Amino acid sequence: MVGGVFTMMDISASALRAERARMNVHANNLANVNTTRDADGNLNPYRRKRIYFKAGAPELTGSSQLGVEVDKIDDDMTTDFLKKYQPGHPDADENGYVSYPNVSVPMEMVDMMMASRAYEANLTAMDTGKQILRGALQIIA
Q1: C-alpha distances in angstroms, 58 versus 7, 11, 139?
Q2: CA–CA separation, 96 and 83 (whole Å)
Q3: pTM of the model
């Protein structure tokens, strides 16, 4: 029901879901910061994942205009792998360089902190919504 009494809660709930997904993507990037091989053991460094949101969360809010949801998660193909000179490393190329994932730890930490703060802000919005509803019910009762 669009515009109902619980719409504000539904909007915040959609944002909580989206920010949780964002934190998971950044945590996954951080966990793979030194991964130089894929699951099959082939030399294929991990590619940083990026997450995109879009407006609307119809399953929660009943509207494509209210709330937010994850649009897509893809690989970051815009930045190159990090090359480190480590001639003794088993994954080094013929010139002694190892390709590491295109993950920047400081950037991932900042993005994760931003997602955490957005999550907290939406929890606060939900608490405020609960207080408003509680106050309205006290007035009616």
Answers
A1: 11, 10, 31
A2: 10
A3: 0.86
Beta partners for residue 83, in sequence order: 99
- DSSP per-residue letters across 104-135: -HHHHHHHHHHHHHHHHHHHHHHHHHHHHHHH
Q: What is the DSSP string of 79-105?
A: SPPEEEE-TTSTT--TTSEEEE-S--H
Q: For the chain, how many structural domains are there in total?
A: 1
Give per-residue pLDDT as tens, 59-107: 777 777 888 999 999 999 999 999 999 999 999 999 999 999 999 999 9
Examine residue 65 and state whether it is found in any structural domain, yes or no: yes
In a domain? residue 82 = no
